Amino acid sequence: MNKLLSYCEKDTWLHRLSGVTKLVFFLLWCLTSALTYDTRILLVMIVISAVLFAMSKTEWKQISTVFKFVMFFMIVNLCAIFMFSPYQGTAIYGSKTVLTGFLPGHDITREELFYLFNVLIKYFTVVPSVFIFLVTTDPSEFAASLNLVGIPYTIAYSVAIALRYIPDVQSDFTRIRNAQEARGIEMSGKARLHDRIKRTASILFPLLFSTMEHIETVSNAMELRGFGKKKKRTWYALKGLHRNDYLVLIGTVLFMAAAMIITYADGNRFWNPWI
After folding, report:
1. Counting beta carbons within 10 angstroms of the beta carbon of residue 220, is it exposed (0 to 12), middle (13 to 18) or buried (19 or more)?
2. DSSP H or E run through 161
3. What is the 3-state secondary structure (H, E, C) of 56-101?
4. What is the distance between the alpha carbons of residues 191 and 198, in angstroms, rounded to a whole number?
5. How would you classify residue 189: left for phi > 0, otherwise alpha for psi between -120 and 50, otherwise beta?
6. Three-class SS of residue 108?
7. Maximum separation of any 2 CA atoms in the chain, in Å
8. What is the rounded average pLDDT of the residues 205-216?
9. Percent of the chain whose predicted confidence (pLDDT) is above 90
10. Predicted pLDDT of residue 1
């Protein structure tokens, strides 16, 4: 069974980076994407994300299901923005160029389309970094790295368990879905979208119960082994920072600083191509 968004050991420089390095990169990268609406910077971030994603050698089957869900979420979000705030772009860019009518009070404007385009590409700057982080980071090594920088090992170990259980939850989901299909409930692409969403939602409750059973089993096992009794612990998978780690950290900080300088050069984080 194919594992979804699980760590897969490969010989790439991204896999050899410390978990702390990848976490810092991920946080600063997401923060940069959240703070800027400069289309030029966002497009550069997409190119960098695509290059890093290719370097990670991630297989499509590892992310296909999640990517489809993210795409569905993005489309729903963009439609909601347009329906509830059809002239947000007009207010931001200070002009209104109507391209065509749509619904009463919902004209399609050039400014709104440009604003929605920026929202869309913001997703594409972050989503690849999430995939890269999950498929290139060994949960045990990541927990050890977190503890190395001062985070209590109980919290670090909880993060590691959460990362390890992502493929297990996917396996449970697939098993429950197969059981439903064996009973004659169509959940593949042959069914209508509305029926697929409704039937997939019905899987959530048995999936939740299955996950709770896993949590109870792990909790009992950790309690029997005296987990948390000591203030410190040793780590088998500890990985320190090396030259590439420092280069990535320095490069990430410099990129974020440059992006913020360019973004706020005119005192506004929204780049206006019509000025």
Report:
1. exposed
2. helix 153-182
3. CCCCHHHHHHHHHHHHHHHHHHHHHHHHHCCCHHHHHHCCCCEEEE
4. 11
5. alpha
6. strand
7. 67
8. 76
9. 25
10. 45
